Automatic annotation (TrEMBL):
This is RTA1 like protein. The chain crosses the membrane at residues 20-38, 45-64, 76-98, 119-142, 154-176, 197-215, 235-254. GO terms for cellular component: membrane. Keywords: Membrane, Transmembrane, Transmembrane helix. Pfam families: RTA1. It is found in: Membrane.
Length: 279
C-alpha cells in the first residue's frame, strides 16, 4: 500500500492522491482539450483561446495528481497540480467575459449595458488577470512549509477577487438581458445568431465557476488540517466535476455564431445619458 512521504520533513499532501480519479479526469480533460482546440481553429473564434488553454491546464493538473500517487514526497507534481488546477478557471472566465461583449455587439445592445462596451471586456479581463496572478503567487508560497499559511491567505484574496468579478459580471449580464427583453433591437431578431442560448450558457457556467471558487475559499480558510484539504473527494465533486461541466456547456453552446457587429458611430451606454427605451 502506498504511504505518504514527506518533503524535507513537511507533508505536502494530507492523503495519498487517487491515481484512478486523477487518470479519469486527465482523460476527460484531454478529450475536452482536443474538442475545444478543434472548435477554436475550425471556427476561428479567437476570443476562446484562453478557454482552450484552461482545458490544457486542467489536463496537466490532473495528470500531475495521477503521477503524484507514488510521489507524494516530490515537490514538482504537487506544484504543477496546485497551480494549474487553481488558476485554470480564471482562463475560462476570460473567454466568458469576452463572449458577453460579443453578444452585446452582435445585437447592437451597447446602449443597454451598464458598463461602456469598449471598457466592459477590459475591466473584467483585467480583474481576471489580477485574480490569476494573485492566486498563482499564493500557490507558489503554499509549497513552502514555512509560508503555507501566507500562501493560503494570498490565494483566498485572489479567489475573492474572482468571486467579486463574477458577481459584477452576472449583475451586468442580467441587467443587459432584462433591458433587451423589454426593448429588443432589430438585430436581436436574427435567428442565425443564437445569442439568447449563448447568454443562458453564460449564466450557467458563471454559477458553476462561482460555486467552485467559493469551495476553494472554504478549503483554504479551513486550513491545512481542515476537512476539504484532508478529504480528496471534495476536490473532485466541487472542482473537477464542475469545471468539466463548464467545458461541456461552453463547447455545446460555442459562441462562434455570435459575431460582433461593426461599432456604431455614436453608440453609448446607459451610464452616459443614453436615451434608454427610445426608438
Amino acid at each position: 500500500m502506498t504511504q505518504l512521504e514527506s518533503h524535507n520533513g513537511y507533508y505536502l499532501w494530507k492523503y495519498v492522491p487517487s491515481s484512478a480519479a486523477g487518470g479519469i479526469f486527465a482523460t476527460l480533460f484531454a478529450i475536452a482539450t482536443i474538442a475545444h482546440f478543434y472548435r477554436l481553429f475550425s471556427t476561428r473564434t479567437w476570443s476562446c483561446i484562453p478557454f482552450a488553454i484552461g482545458c490544457i491546464f486542467e489536463l496537466i493538473g490532473y495528470a500531475a495528481r495521477t503521477s503524484a500517487h507514488n510521489k507524494t514526497g516530490e515537490l514538482m507534481p504537487y506544484i504543477i497540480q496546485s497551480v494549474l488546477l487553481l488558476v485554470a478557471p480564471a482562463l475560462f472566465a476570460a473567454s466568458i467575459y469576452m463572449t458577453l461583449g460579443r453578444i452585446i455587439r452582435c445585437v447592437r445592445g451597447e446602449k443597454y449595458s451598464i458598463i461602456r462596451v469598449n471598457w466592459l471586456t477590459k475591466i473584467f479581463v483585467i480583474g481576471d488577470v489580477l485574480s490569476f496572478v494573485v492566486q498563482s503567487g499564493g500557490a507558489g508560497f503554499m509549497v513552502e512549509g514555512d509560508n503555507a499559511t501566507t500562501g493560503q491567505n494570498i490565494v483566498v484574496g485572489g479567489l475573492f477577487v474572482q468571486i467579486i468579478m463574477f458577481g459584477l459580471f452576472v449583475v451586468t449580464t442580467t441587467i443587459f438581458h432584462l433591458r433587451m427583453r423589454r426593448y429588443p433591437t432589430t438585430e436581436s431578431y436574427n435567428v442565425e445568431a443564437p445569442w439568447k442560448s449563448t447568454l443562458r450558457m453564460l449564466y450557467g457556467v458563471s454559477v458553476l465557476i462561482m460555486i467552485r471558487s467559493i469551495f476553494r475559499v472554504v478549503e483554504y480558510v479551513s486550513g491545512q488540517n481542515g476537512y476539504p484539504l484532508t478529504h480528496e473527494w471534495t476536490v473532485y465533486i466541487f472542482d473537477a466535476v464542475l469545471m468539466l461541466l463548464v467545458t461541456v456547456a461552453f463547447y455545446y453552446w460555442y459562441p462562434s455564431k455570435v459575431i460582433p457587429a461593426p461599432p456604431e458611430s455614436g453608440a453609448y451606454s446607459l451610464n452616459t445619458n443614453s436615451k434608454y427605451g427610445e426608438p
